[in-house]
Amino acid sequence: MSLINENFLELQDSYLFTNIARKVAKFTQENPDKEVIKLGIGDVTKPIVPACLEAMHKAVDEIGTAEGFKGYGPEQGYDFLRKAIVENDYKTRGVDLDEDEVFVSDGAKCDCGNIVDIFAQNNKVAITDPVYPVYLDTNIMSGRSITYLPITAENNFIPELPKEKVDMIYLCFPNNPTGTVLSKEELKKWVEYAKENKSVILYDAAYEAFITEDDIPHSIYEIEGAKDVAIEFRSYSKTAGFTGVRCAYVVVPKSVKGYTTDGKEVSLNKLWNRRTCTKFNGVSYAVQRAAEATYSKEGKEQIKANMKAYLENAKIIKEGLEEAGFTVYGGVNSPYIWLKVPEGMTSWEFFDKLLEEANIVGTPGSGFGSNGEGYFRLTAFGTKENSIKAIERIKQTANKLK
Ligand SMILES: *Cc1c(COP(=O)(O)O)cnc(C)c1O
Asked: Is position 36 within any domain?
């Protein structure tokens, strides 16, 4: 008899995006003359930039030659990319990493989910609420108990240190879904907490490239001592539009330790390396060359232009909503705008109103956790034209939305 992992039965079914799709399909069918603007998706829309495309084309041609053929590559990633990451993403911010502390992967989602393999089941895990669901669901699948850290307007979206001791802490800043950030001062508190409690911080910096303000850390390693307690996740998905191409990486410094039950220190880098070699085949050569090209002069400029365009959309949406009388968070260092739904309305009620009155699709905050109730997420990943149009409609229908 093949017994199942019963933790899977503890997962809550996620109907969020299915429900949204169903409601939008029904509305479009009943109102074929109305043009619906989608500001709900968390996917980018700008095509892969020329610098990355060129590098990828070149790599594809190369593997068609006897000299350039590549078979199985190193599971941890090719040296050229690990080196480029260390030089460009870290050295420029005063962070020294060794190349073997960087593991190239096919996604930060996979990394955030897979990292739990190297930790014991009885670790206590702290996760913000609302949250990117991957951290939560992967820990439920492996049967860990969860401590929720509310992030709401009441605490300025700054999670408070847990009262009970936790062993693993997931932090994502700039945050999805709220679009808010942590200052160096705030992040320092978490690093100190982790040191005191021998915990590990799992820091998701997937939106690092959207940071515009000073004093907002791009990497947790900008905080002194973080290399002893933190693992960091990065992705080319939102930055370089690699959501379909697939490339990301995780940093596991050699100084981050885990512990055996009898208190012996073990290097997490060693464990993660072993796990990677056993279960992963590495990212394809052509994709890693494309990722490398994000650090070329042209690549950097082209990507910067895309970031700027998304952030302009965010500004249009944020300021427009404020002019229409809404309370709005995020949208400055992030492509996400998190708005407070009008008093007395639920997130889903606002979803329906916004769709019916303004023909705009967003994401109900309650879909990201119970503390997301009363909030609503809009994204800046659409076109400028649509962002402007959406705001015009919201302004025109503002009195009907409340
Ligand atoms: C989009 C996103 C990622 C990136 O995931 P990939 O698997 O690299 O595409 C990671 N974390 C968060 C919070 C995200 O929103």
From this structure: yes
Q: Across-strand partners of 168?
A: 125, 200
Q: End-to-end distance of the chain based on CA atoms, in angstroms?
A: 56
Q: From first to last of its 402 residues, what are the pLDDT tens digits of the chain?
A: 999 999 999 998 888 889 999 999 999 999 999 999 999 878 899 999 999 999 999 999 999 999 999 999 999 999 999 999 999 999 999 999 999 999 999 999 999 999 999 999 999 999 999 999 999 999 999 999 999 999 999 999 999 999 989 999 999 999 999 999 999 999 999 999 999 999 999 999 999 999 999 999 999 999 999 999 999 999 999 999 999 999 999 999 999 999 999 999 999 999 999 999 999 999 999 999 999 999 999 999 999 999 999 999 999 999 999 999 999 999 999 999 999 999 999 999 999 999 999 999 999 999 999 999 999 999 999 999 999 999 999 999 999 988
Counting from 1 in the atom list of ligand 1, the atom nearest the Cα of 108 is 8
CA of 233 to the centre of ligand 1 (A): 9
Rg (CA), the chain: 22
Alpha-carbon distance 356 to 96, whole Å? 52
Residues 68, 212: one domain? yes
Nearest atom (ligand 1) to Cα of 132: 13
Question: Looking at ligand 1, which atom is closest to the CA of residue 175?
Answer: 13
Domain that holds residue 93: 50-296
Q: Are residues 77 and 117 in the same domain?
A: yes
Q: Is the CB of 313 under 6 A from ligand 1?
A: no
Does the C-beta of 208 come closer than 6 Å to ligand 1?
A: no
Return the CATH number at 211: 3.40.640.10
Predicted model pTM: 0.97
CATH number at residue 374: 3.90.1150.10
User: Hey, which bits of 305-396 come out as E strands?
Assistant: 328-330, 336-340, 360-361, 363-364, 375-379
